[in-house]
Structure formats: structure tokens, C-alpha cells
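Suppose a classmate hands you a notebook page containing two proteins, each written out with its sequence and a corresponding row of C-alpha cells. How would you begin to make sense of it? This section walks through that situation. The first entry is reproduced here exactly as it would appear on such a page.
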Amino acid sequence: MNDFRKFTVDVVEEKREMVLAFLSLLNCDMIEETSEGFSLSFELDDTFEASKREFLNVVDRFELSFEEETVKAQNWNEVWESSFQPIFVNDYAQIRASFHEQKKDYKHDLLIDPQMSFGTGHHATTYMMVDAMSSMDFDGKDVMDYGCGTGILAILAAKEGAKSILAFDIEANAYENSLSNAKINGVAHISIFQGVLDQVEAQSTFDYILANINRNVILESLSTLRQHLRKGGNLLISGILEKDVELVVAKAKEAGLKPLKMNTSEGWVCYLFTSN
């Protein structure tokens, strides 16, 4: 296992959500929130120099100060376990790791056991996606989870009775983690692959498409996502900031999507669209 280079970035409170949105796009192995901002860890492999340049572009864009240090190889699962907190969505779902105590009185108990750290992630966006899904009818429906990450949304759709679920992510670790999490949650009918949206068969259509990603990917994908939605199908997205809502809604309308409902939390937005 290689050593890591750790960057500790100072970010004022009012800029944190925006900066996190950009940092989350980087090819880093771990993002942690600190009292002063964020820390990012990059493995010292042949991709490090390119990743560092991208990191410095973000730093320059927001005029941030940072410190840099080398960290010896360590068990990132142990690091993750020390920082991950479960998510509780009303009385509908609890999202926890196996080392968390299971609480009662939740409709769904969803387990996530990453094989490596995926960073802090956006707990607010996950919460809103799951909350929105609690009022949807997935029974017998066909679902796509675009950028599945840990696979948690696909797993929830399966537990809600979806007939078929296609889940995929460009990252190998996300693909492997989704396979593992689907297994430990006892849902065998999720089709998972590592890849991109263009690899989905053009004729494949879905009743629901779930996409908890980021603004740039969503904007680039709206037209293609619309093509994969059946008439009257729903697209549920998150990972965008409140300041970007008007842009995303305008692009969605251009793609033939009708905005239905928006929810916000901690500066993040979850939006439901339907196909015209």
C-alpha cells in the first residue's frame, strides 16, 4: 500500500458548501470535514501529480490557504469507522454500518460497509433523496441509479419492490462497494456495472431515475436521462447547490423535463422532475 499526501484546507463557513462541491469532484481517496475546513488525502501513485494540479486549481479559484503533509499508509476502513455517523430519515429508514447498533421502528434498515473510505459525502443530499423516495411507488417499477456510489438508493428501491434496478458508477471502488452492499442487504436483482451513462442501451427506459451526483454531471446528462425516462417517468436528482437551481431547472426544461417538487437542506437541493 502506498503512502498518502494529505492537504488540510482552511475554508470560511459561508464558502464551505460551494468548496466541498468542487473538492468532491477530485480523484481523492478521502475527504474529511474539519473545524477549519477540509482535509483531503491522495494516494501517492502515478495519478497523484494530475490530482494535485486539479486540487491546486480549486485552491486558486477560491483563494484558499492549505498545509501539506505525507501520511504513512493506514487502514482507511478504521479511519472511516471512526468518523461515519448513521443517517435516520424520519421513521422510514436508517442507514448505518454493521458496527452501528440497529434501532427499531424504521421501515427499512439499510447497511453500508465500504471497502474503503468514500469521504464524508453529502449526508444532506442522501437524506433528501431517501426522504423523497419514501413517498414514491416503486412496486413493480424499473429503476436506474446513476452514479450509485455505495448503492444505497438502488438497494432502497429494491426493498420497495422495484421490478428491476440498473445501477452504475464510473469509479471501480464504488462499483465493488455497491456489489458488496447489495449482497449484505439481501437484494439480488440489482444489475450493477462500472461505467458511464453512454453505456446504457439506448432503448432502455425507466419509470424512475435516481441521480445523487453533482451539478456538472447532471447538467451534461439531462438530455440523455430524459431519453431513458418513460412518458410520465420521474427523475430525482440531488448533489446541486441552491445557487445552481435556476440553471439546472432551465436546462431540465430544455431537455423536456417538467419540475415538480424541490426540497433543500444545508444549502443542498433535491429536485423531482417528470417527463413531458
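The notebook's second entry, a different protein, reads as follows.
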Amino acid sequence: MEGVVEPVQLTSEELSELRRAKWILEHPSLAIRMTNLLGVPIEKGFKLLPKGCAKLVHRSVRAALFQTLKAATLSLGSHQQTPSSDRFHKIIVGTSGAVAGTFGFASLPVELPLSTAAMLRSIADIARSEGHRLSDLETQLACLEVFALGGRPPGPRDQENQYWIIRAGLARAISEASTYLANRGIVNETAPAIVRLIAAIAGRFGVIVSEQIAAKAVPLVGAASSSAINLIFMGHFQRMARGHFTVKRLEKKYGAQEIEDLYRSIPVPLPPKDRESTRPVH
């Protein structure tokens, strides 16, 4: 019938991957995981944070993201589509968490850029494993985009598909930054396009960082628990990256609007019991 658009026909494996990606992207659960680790709500940790914490987090997040954007615009590896090394990157972040647990909140300006850089490497590694070219500016900015994903508890049905709401909110900032970087080739921290991109991502990433810090503020959290919290922190963004780049891989094959429509039509599935990612983890 004229005017009727046929729905895209994914393979059964691809449809399973998209369902899995939707489960990941719509169920971040970072705060819940840290609460389960500590045995107490992280809201208690927020009450224990020192005055001026919000300002320090804000400055540290922006500084870390600026450095991460600079790293993201460099070549991060080959295009070879091999499994990502998720565990290796978790070891790096776990170690930095142990150091931060020893020195406390004052170590944030040093520890956050290091852990964020390690997360970028892992996010890029996952993008590569999903078939994306790390030399492409689009992929580099998509890696940075992952830092804005997640960080909210599961909500009512009218809060579903937050993934697309977040992407739509970042679309203009990413487009402007892409145009600027394509023309200039360097990251200028004072350029309006770069400032707007960092601000858009920092607004969401800062919330997740604050949750992480609040968890570490809970009494009796020492170096070992700080390391465990960092591992959960890293695992959260690895999950978001896996879901994000699965969606983007399917978008390249079938079209962005087609995959978005199909994604939205899929009921949020129950949590899979077999594994945490759409592809094997090594």
C-alpha cells in the first residue's frame, strides 16, 4: 500500500541484542548497586559530605571531561573487531579507587581524571569491539556521550526511553562540537561549541560522580570498599557503552529512525539471567 513504510527486519540475533541494549540503557541502577554493596542507602553518604563538595565535584567533572575530550579526538586504537578487555580496565579503576580510599575526598581532583580516562579507554574499546572506527570523529564523540547515560533509578512507564531523550538533548551540542572539531582539529576549552558540549555532559555525569562520592563517604568505607565502588562505577559505564554502541551499530545498518522506532516499540524486558552484555566479555 502506497505511503506505508515496512518495518525493518532484524535477524533474530540482532533483535535479541536490541532487546538487551534496551534493558541496559533503561535500567542503570548504579545507586542501587552501591547501596547493596554498602548495606545502607547512599543518601546517608550525601549528608556526610563536606561543605563545598558540590563546587569541587563540578570543577573536577568539567576538568576531567575536557581532558577526556582531548584524548577522545586522538586515535584510540585499531578498527579490528575483537572482544573488548573490560576486566583489564576494571583493574585500573579498582586500583585508583583503593588509592582514593586511602587519601579520601581531597584526592578527587587527581583521581577523577585518572578514572575517567580509564573509563574512556574502556568505552572506546567496547565501541571498537562493536565494529566502530575509533578514528572517526562521530565515534569519538559517541564515546564521550556515554558519560551522560544512566544515573537515574527505574521510573514509571512514562519515563521509559530516557536513552532517546538524553540523546536528543545532546544532539545539538554534539553537532556543533563535531563541526568545530572537523574544522579546527583541536580542542579549545574556551570555544563556545566545546563549552556547551562539556556543560551538557557534565550536568548528567556530575550526578553519577556525586553518587559515587556519597557512597565512599559512608562510615567504614576504606580502601577496599572504595575500590569496589570504583569497579561498580566502571561496570556501569561499560554497560552503558555496550548498549549505546549496539544501538549505533544497528543504526548504521538499518537507519537511525528505523532503529529508534523499533527500540521504542519493544517492551522493557525482564533482566536477562545469563550475562551482562550483548557480546562475550574478555
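A careful reader of the second entry would note: The chain has one domain: 12-265.
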